[in-house]
Every structure is written in C-alpha cells, then in structure tokens.
Design goal:
single chain, 427 residues, alpha/beta, seven-stranded mixed beta sheet, elongated
C-alpha cells in the first residue's frame, strides 16, 4: 500500500496550483490538449489513478481513499490550496475533497460527473466481466462510451489511443475502482459543497449526461452549468478548445481567497447556512418544568439488521434485494427480516471468513441440498465476491465427490447459465 499517487507538474512554479483529475481507464494524457493554455495561468498538477498509465498497482478501496492519497501527495509537495477540475471518476474525487477538506479547495469544476454513477450493481457487474475476461472487452467498447460516433470515425488514432489506454490498465486496480464507484453516493450531501463550482457536460454523453449534471447544479449551492454541444463522455478530448475556454473563465473568475483580509487567517470554505423551513414559534411561559426522559441503557450487541442489509445488498445486488423486499407481505415479511438480521448480519458479516470463502461454503451446501434456485443467485454472488468461473467449477467438482454426481450435474447446468449471463460483455 502506498499513500501517494503518480503525478507530474506543468507550468510556472510560483503560479497557483490547478489539479486535473482523470476518468476511470484514462491517464493524465487525457488533459494534454488543455495544458498549453492552462499553464499560462496556473501550475498544473496531473495525477494517475492506481494501476493506470504505469502507476504502481496499489488498489484503492474507495473514492475517499483516493482523495486522501491525493492530499498525502500534495502535502509532501507543500501544496496546501488548489483549484480542482475532475472528469467522471476524477469528478467524484473532487466532490469528496470539497465535502471533507473544503479549506484546501479554492474552486471546483466537475466534468461528466455525477453524485452517483449508475447503480452499484452495474459497477460490480463490470468488475465480474473484467475478472473473467480481462480488460479487453471494456477497452474495445470504450470509444462507444467516451466519444460520439462521428468523432470516433473521424479520429481513428485517438480512438485507438483510448482502447490501448484501457487495455494497459492493471485489472485489479480497475476492478477496485469499479467497487469504489459502486459505493459512491453523495446525493444527500451536495448542499454542503461550499466551493464555487462549474458543472460541465457533453450534450451527447450517454454515461453521465445532462440529467446528472442538472442534479449536481440543483444540489450544489454555488454551481453553474455548461453544456458542450457535439461531445460525449470524454469531453476534454473530444472538444478540447471549448473545455479549455470554460475552465479558464471559471477558474479566473471563481477562485475563493485563502485568507481573511482583515485577520490574515486562513478561512475554511463553508457552505451557506441552512435556511430553516419553519419559523420559530413565539416564546411561551412553560406551565411546568419538563424533565428529560431517561434513555434506557442498551444492553448486549447492537441490532445486526442494518449491517445485514448492507452485506446482503453488497453480495446479492440491490436489484435482487429490492425485489425480495418488495415481494414481502404480512405473511413473508418476518422471514425477510429474519434472514437479513441473522443470515446476513450475524453470519455473513462475521470476520472469521472472507466473502470468497463464504461463497465456496454456500455453493457446496446448496448443491448438497439441491436448492437450485438459490444456487443461481449465489453463483452471481460468488462472482461478485471475487470467485472466477474456474474457481466455481472447482467448487462444483469438489461437491460432485461429496454430494453426488446427480446433484452436481444439475448444479453445473444452473451455474453455467448464470456464468454465461454474468460474464458476457454487453455489446
């Protein structure tokens, strides 16, 4: 594990620092076309995500982890205050910095970003595909996600560059980044972003498009929207001139000062105060003193339901859990609560075995019991927990010896169908 990131500086040493954050699957070279103009005004700092662009392959567990690694890198370089522009995943890091370390940030630009990127299931599914097939399927489909069709056809060299950039990324770090995005959701916190923010999006972005951009603008108190026509997801590459012009204008006009001019002390950037919804009631004379209600002492362990629901969603997926809970009624609701609390909160959340091992045990038990319906969704869960199709095959072969060939024959049929569905890249 390392606490720093691979980086480079461009521009005059005494200029204020402007950080450019990359998208998932890209390197700092995605910003090459912005550098000549930006370095006239700022000292530009670019960084690579772990395992991208030849950076050391130290996977990060979350967006917050990457934000802390970035701050650790900057601390080592003596950079305390900066502007920040991030594209997609880089935008998530920017939001995280604005929420957790507002005193460090002077201004923010979010490009092709979102407070929540798709669904957790989508990103964990992408991780399953990469774990099974490597990065080649993701690399080959990247131009479709990143560029408009006309641009990709007219710029074959850039299209091939994009494919190779993804193909040379470390698969483990890419999967970890997918997991980080799966757990990233700051929709409820946008009102606390107190830094001046430009939200920039390509008009034809099908990944995080204008709808997501408007969500950011509606939630961030001091945010402006800019829609770049004729551009898709990787808008700094597809429309470099327009993006450069918008960044120069934003950071030139919306750079919050670091120091209070009256006191000389550094000021933290804070969000505007929350306006109360209800007016305060007029003062009244109390009829009697109301003593605070004594809170009963909570004995024993905390209720494992919430932890169980979290684990259940992470292992089985939001769609599966939402469907099961939605189908629960007065008759079956208690059972759903029971398995969430005890199967998932008490057992699956125990630290004694990792989730890969628990999946192996569960698959074997389901084969032994002939529970083929549950075997199907636990095969999906095993893939999400990190087992490869080859490892699942080995579990079923082992089960054939100890649980019987007929049971394993049915299990292979079910598992094979699920694995094909889950590991076949969507064209």
């Amino acid at each position: 594990m390392t606490s720093t990131l691979q980086y480079r500086f461009d521009g005059p040493e005494q200029a204020p620092v402007l950080i450019l954050g990359p998208s998932l699957g890209t390197t700092w070279h995605m910003w090459d076309r912005q550098i000549p103009e930006l370095t006239k005004h700022w000292r530009v700092f670019r960084f690579d995500l772990p395992g991208h662009g030849g950076a050391p392959a130290h996977p990060a567990a979350s967006v917050a982890d990457l934000a802390e690694r970035l701050l650790g890198t900057l601390d080592g370089l003596g950079v305390q205050r900066f502007g920040y522009a991030g594209c997609a995943f880089g935008g998530a890091i920017g939001i995280e910095l604005a929420l957790r370390h507002p005193e460090r940030m002077a201004s923010l630009a979010l490009i092709a970003a979102s407070p929540r990127f798709g669904t957790a299931d989508q990103f964990r599914q992408r991780g399953v595909i990469v774990r099974t097939n490597g990065l080649d399927p993701i690399a080959r489909s990247s131009p479709e996600r990143w560029f408009t069709g006309g641009f990709a056809a007219a710029q074959p060299a850039i299209t091939e560059w994009a494919v190779q950039m993804v193909r040379t990324t470390d698969p483990g770090c890419y999967i970890a980044a997918c997991e980080a995005l799966a757990s990233f959701d700051v929709r409820a916190e946008l009102g606390r972003v107190g830094v001046p923010t430009l939200v920039l999006v390509g008009s034809d972005d099908q990944v995080t498009g204008p709808a997501e951009a408007r969500t950011l603008v509606a939630g961030i108190p001091d945010a402006r929207l800019a829609v770049v026509p004729g551009a898709s997801h990787l808008v700094p590459v597809e429309q470099p001139g327009a993006v450069t012009d918008l960044l120069v204008r934003h950071f030139s006009s919306a750079w919050q000062p670091a120091f209070d001019t009256t006191s000389g002390h550094q000021m933290a950037i804070s969000a505007p105060p929350v306006k109360p919804v209800l007016a305060a009631a007029p003062p009244m004379m109390p009829l009697a003193e109301i003593a605070p209600v004594a809170q009963p002492e909570v004995l024993g362990r905390p209720d494992p339901y919430d932890a169980g629901l979290k684990v259940r969603r992470e292992v089985l997926g939001d769609a599966h859990v939402d469907r099961a809970l939605a189908q629960a009624d007065e008759f079956s609701g208690d059972f759903q609560e029971f398995i969430t609390r005890y199967a998932w909160g008490e057992v699956w959340d125990r630290p004694g075995l990792d989730r890969r091992s628990r999946s192996c045990v569960t698959l074997t038990a389901l084969v032994a019991g002939g529970h083929l319906e549950e075997l199907a969704f636990h095969t999906r869960a095993a893939l999400r927990n990190g087992l490869t199709p080859v490892e699942i095959k080995e579990v079923l072969l082992q089960a054939a010896v100890y649980c019987g060939v007929p049971a394993a024959n049915s299990a292979f049929r079910v598992a094979q169908k699920v694995i094909r569905e889950e590991t076949t890249p969507q064209e």
